[in-house]
Amino acid sequence: MKKKLVSVLLSATMAATMIAGCGGSKDTAPTQEAEATEETAEETTEETTEAAEETTEATEDAAADTADADLGSGEIKVWVADNVVDFTNEQIQKFMDENSQYAGYTVTVEAVGEGDAAGNMITDVESGADIYAFAQDQIARLVTAGALEVVEDNNAVAVEADNDAGSVSAAKVGGTLYAYPITSDNGYFLYYDKSVVTDPSTLEGIVADCEAAGKNFYFEINSGWYQTAFFFGAGAELTYDTDDQGNFTTCNSTYASDAGVVALKKMIELAGSKSFQNGSSLSNATNVGAIVDGTWDAEAAKEVFGDNYACAKLPTFEGADGQTHQMSGFGGFKLLGVKPQDDENKLAVCDALAAYLSSEEVQLARYNAVGWGPSNLKAQQASEVQADEALSALGEQLQYTIPQGQYPGDYWTLATSLGDSIISGEIAADADDDTLMQALTDFQTTCEGYAQ
């Protein structure tokens, strides 16, 4: 149905283009034929004008047909996080007011968080929401469960052009776009006291400044989320593949490598600094000179640092290999999915609504309402977003991260143990490369075992 309506408008537009293309010529008529030419020109002008008017009317009629088309009726269920239920209701009402062709549909918004939506959808796709927000690490499971419709072609073109690369990548499986990005705001970066840290661009400089000022530098190296900043930054890899049932089938890891050793050595070096404190929460931090944390702690950071509040992407570090490495890690995005529909009319309405709720206008309004960082490139350039130092720092950092995929629960526990071994000194600061490689080999082998 939606393709038919688009074809009507396209036909009218093509007709107008063809007439416009036939309206003039570069040839000059001989003098003796001037009078006849003028008469012909007048006739041609009248015909062209009449045809153009008819085409304009046809275009307007086609647009009216689209607006008045019978798209049927039905119920549409939308799931979003609790803190944006009211906002989403307001935006949907605005959308419906501006699109009378969808008047036959009633939209109900329910509070289901991004962390719960995927599990609920996979359990019962038929009873699940028609449109729902979810965290990017769940997209493969949702596609496998048949809970995501491929993004409609025209919308897909707009999504790829309008949103940052990280969020678009997170919305794809196997190169196919299955969701609409709505945020680029989940990740970590550096908060620091600019009266303490003179140059936040290098890890060595940050540590030296904190040590000199007697201040603490917080980094949660016993977290499987945060410690990837070192491993991915050095060039090591750790991802998982899943089968159609969501079972882990393959562990793609290169932690047991020269790159892994470089990362592990740097973590050991950091843990040996007198300024080092293991942690990532400003609410639990004391005497802070700098901390690696996320946007959720922006207000706490402003309170702690006051006039010296500052933010930056994660720093680079000098590796034992003599190379400079940009710290990396995981990036997180919120996506909006549309469930497959038997009714093509209802699917057209869901597509249109999802496109609207993920648009520049709504992303910017959502930022102003609840502070969610937009993935839309133009919304990111809005003055109020640019003035948000935390989001700007995160946006820069996300260029160096990978979207977090699915990981076994045991991975997180194992990563904590690795970090704890560094902090406790079980992995000694003076350990040789063979010892470090063995620790990483044991780690990697265990990770691979989770996928068997």
| Low-pLDDT residue intervals, each spanning 5 or more residues | 1-68
Task: Tell me the fraction of residues in β-strands, as a range.
Answer: 15-25%
Tally the structural domains.
2
Strand order of the largest sheet: 2-1-3-17-6
- Work out the helicity level: 40-55%
CATH homologous superfamily of the largest domain, by name? Periplasmic binding protein-like II
Number of strands: 18
CATH level-two architecture of the largest domain: 3-Layer(aba) Sandwich
Instruction: Write down the overall mean pLDDT.
Output: 87
Major sheet attributes: 5 strands, mixed
| Overall form | globular
Radius of gyration: 28 Å
Cα-to-Cα separation, first versus last residue: 46 Å
Q: What name does the CATH topology of the largest domain carry?
A: D-Maltodextrin-Binding Protein, domain 2
What is the number of helical segments per DSSP (H or I, 4+ residues)? 18
Brief summary of the model shown:
The chain is α/β, with parallel strands linked by helices.
Outline the structure in words.
It is a single chain. The protein is 48% helix and 16% strand. By secondary structure, the chain is an alpha/beta fold. The protein has two domains: 74-185 and 332-397, Periplasmic binding protein-like II (D-Maltodextrin-Binding Protein, domain 2, 3-Layer(aba) Sandwich); 189-328 and 408-449, Periplasmic binding protein-like II (D-Maltodextrin-Binding Protein, domain 2, 3-Layer(aba) Sandwich). Strand 1 (74-80), helix 3 (85-98) and strand 2 (105-111) form a beta-alpha-beta unit. Helix 1 packs antiparallel against helix 2 (34-68) and helix 10 crosses helix 18. It is globular and about 75 Å long. 41% of the residues are buried. Residues 1-68 have low confidence and may be disordered.
